Amino acid sequence: MNLAKQLSKKEIKKFLSENFERLKIIKVAVQKEIKANEKLRKKLESGENPFRNQQIKSFV
Fold first, then answer.
1. What is the span of the domain harbouring residue 23?
2. Which candidate, 12, 32, 33, 40, has a CA 20 to 30 Å from the CA of 23?
3. 51 part of a folded domain
4. Percent of the chain with pLDDT over 70
5. Nearest Cα to 40, choosing from 29, 48, 31?
């Protein structure tokens, strides 16, 4: 709490605003990832091979 006492209200608002913007960006990224995973899950459940036409990339 010492940090909060040292910062002005304007600085605290700016800090919170910046973090809120970061959280919104993360939220969108997570939603996109969830959507992609759902598509993949549906393909796998239907027996389709979703990787059939893709090259396998090495992570080494």
1. 9-44
2. 40
3. no
4. 75
5. 48
